[in-house]
Design goal:
6-stranded mixed sheet, alpha/beta, single chain, 36% helix, glutaminase activity, 2 domains, Nitrilase/N-carbamoyl-D-aminoacid amidohydrolase, Rossmann fold, NAD, 580 residues, Glutamine-dependent NAD(+) synthetase
């Protein structure tokens, strides 16, 4: 059997664009005299259509494209089976739609399959829309007994009680003696996901060949990493590592030598797509699919804005990146020089617009003095209010936001936020400072941002070597207000991703994970765990994370690369009060 893996980048609602990619794949599979071509999940409408499904025109357009694919199958190489995803209406009881796969050949539909396991965790909310199916679909193709499944159908057991299902379609298919499993997938990237997929699907006991086709590209906060593969038992026959363009790889299931002899050798043998490349792809897709071609960034000379500038230049080309230096009286000379050197190295646009926040504060406070110092004749009260000096610091960030938004509005460049996950967790940014269009590093911890900077030769080393600072006051340093990032990053990760909420639990978590990249200095973290104020500081940070939910809720979307990211996958009420 010859199969073509149609790993494509789809967009919700782009019915013409998605259809064009499907037809290109069909032609390539036909030219290669394939027996099957498999596309990703919900190929026609695009994955994560969400409430667009409730628009009748959306479903109708999806069905029109479905009919066009079926009709086109009459023009292909004889025997070619086209496996693609679409949405069908549910005329019976239950949820209004089915997530389906169709198999078209020689101008007709030879089978349809309804997804049986509809996920309801993390970013997934398919149970809101789709009624699960309950029947297998087994066909004979090229003298092989073939089964069809859709994404979650293969993920019955994730090793967690929270996500287990009673039903197990893959096990049922194996019991029926199928030889080949064709699966359509829209599986978003999280750290180590590629290994999880292979480890889950490989089997010592089953000779079934699994053809796993995943989509690639960015969609809002999600990034799909492709990594489509063919697995025979524990033998990996094929793996796609291309994500920046659509691929239509052809694999002969009968005559292919394995890439690796067994699954245990995978990590050392097959190169993964880097997080940097996935962030580039996510940013590029978000900007281009949103109808923009250029972006604007506030560039401070710090590591976060430097990495965002680098990602933007890689994604869109340096001539489409506008980097604005916005120094105040507290901005150090080296920060201004570092930012300028960065822009020269990258080849992007450079501007300098000094921020005069003191005159703005003086004007406002003069106007507001009627409340803070004098009798208010209108309200008929006399009251003196204590002045919060932090407002003077935050004015600098707010003026920067204003200038960035003016540039965006005047010249049509999408504004990018530069905040990272650690800052977002602790609310360590001025309110509205992450309210632009997109935050490329929103789900990266501080040490991950620094690691990327270290690997980029055009980011001056002084940018990632110097102590992080917002430079909103004289001599200000981030770690003096919070904790060392070597400690803070793991606290945030343990609490947000693994729900570790006690200090004893965090101790165990840190010791158990010290071999992984959880900190910029793991030994320093381990020794800190036994210091005098460690538990009090741990509880202080958790309390801070809880209080900052209202700020995070108002931030813009950003690329999800971790198990749990701030955004649609983490649902915490803003107003809460626990009884102690």
């Amino acid at each position: 059997m010859r199969v073509c893996l149609g790993q494509i980048n789809t967009t919700p609602g782009d019915f013409d664009g998605n259809l064009e990619k499907i037809l290109v794949g069909i032609d390539k599979a036909s030219e290669a005299e394939c027996d099957v071509i498999v596309f990703p999940e919900l190929t026609i409408p695009g994955y994560l259509s969400q409430d667009l499904l409730y628009d009748p025109k959306y479903i109708e357009q999806n069905l029109i494209s479905y009919e066009r694919v079926v009709k086109y199958s009459a023009r292909t190489f004889p025997g070619l089976h086209i496996v693609f995803g679409f949405i069908a209406r549910n005329a019976g009881p239950g949820k209004p739609f089915f997530n389906m796969a169709a198999i078209a050949a020689e101008g007709r539909v030879v089978g349809c399959y309804k997804k049986q396991l509809v996920p309801f965790y993390d970013v997934f909310d398919e149970a809101r829309y789709y009624e699960p199916g309950n029947e297998l679909l087994i066909l004979e193709i090229a003298n092989k007994k073939v089964g069809i499944a859709i994404c979650e159908d293969l993920w019955n057991d994730k090793g967690s009680q929270d996500y287990s299902y009673v039903d197990n379609p893959l096990s049922k298919y194996r019991d029926k003696g199928i030889e080949v499993m064709l699966t359509l997938n829209s599986s978003p990237y999280v750290h180590d996901k590629e290994w999880q997929r292979l480890n889950l699907i490989s089997s010592r006991d089953s000779p079934v060949t699994v053809v796993y086709v995943n989509q690639c590209g960015g969609e809002d906060e999600l990034i799909f990493d492709g990594h489509s593969f063919v697995m025979q038992g524990q033998r990996l026959l094929h793996m796609s590592t291309e994500v920046f363009k659509d691929t239509y790889d052809v694999v002969d299931l009968n005559g292919s030598d394995p890439l690796i002899p067994s699954i245990e050798d995978y990590r050392a043998t097959i190169p993964f797509v880097s997080v940097f490349d996935l962030l580039v792809l996510s940013l590029k897709d978000y900007v281009i699919k949103s109808g923009f071609t250029q972006v604007v960034v506030a560039s401070s000379g710090g590591v976060d804005s430097a990495v965002v500038c680098k990602l933007a230049c890689k994604a869109l080309g340096p001539k489409n990146v506008h980097a604005i230096r916005l120094p105040s009286i507290y901005s150090s000379k080296h920060a201004r020089e570092d930012a300028l050197m960065l822009h020269r190295n990258l080849g992007c646009w450079d501007y300098e617009v000094p921020i005069d926040h003191e005159s703005s504060i003086a004007m406002l406070n003069e106007r507001f003095s009627i409340y803070s110092e004098k009798e208010n004749l209108v309200a008929n009260v006399v009251e003196t209010k204590r002045y919060n000096g932090v407002a003077d610091e935050n004015m600098q960030a707010r003026l920067r936001d204003l200038y960035i938004m003016h540039f965006s509005n005047a010249y049509g460049a999408m504004p990018l936020s530069t905040g990272n996950k650690t800052e977002s967790a602790c609310g360590y940014y001025t309110h509205f400072d992450m309210n632009f269009s997109f935050a490329p590093i929103k789900d990266l911890y501080k040490f991950q941002v620094i690691d990327i900077a270290k690997q980029c030769s055009d980011i001056p080393s002084n940018i990632w070597k110097k102590p992080p600072s917002a430079e909103l006051a004289e001599g200000q340093k981030d770690e003096e207000s919070l904790l060392s990032y070597a400690i803070l990053d793991p606290i945030v990760r343990a609490y947000v991703e693994d729900y570790v909420s006690t200090f004893d639990g965090f101790k165990l978590w840190a010791q158990r994970n010290q071999e992984q990249a959880i900190s910029s200095d793991t030994q320093f973290l381990i020794s800190w765990l036994f210091s005098e104020n460690a538990e009090n500081n741990f509880q202080r940070i958790l309390s801070l994370i809880g209080r900052m939910e209202f700020k995070r809720r108002q931030t813009c979307p950003g690329t999800k690369v971790s198990k749990v990211a701030f955004g649609i996958g983490r649902r915490i009420p803003i107003v809460e009060k626990w009884t102690s």
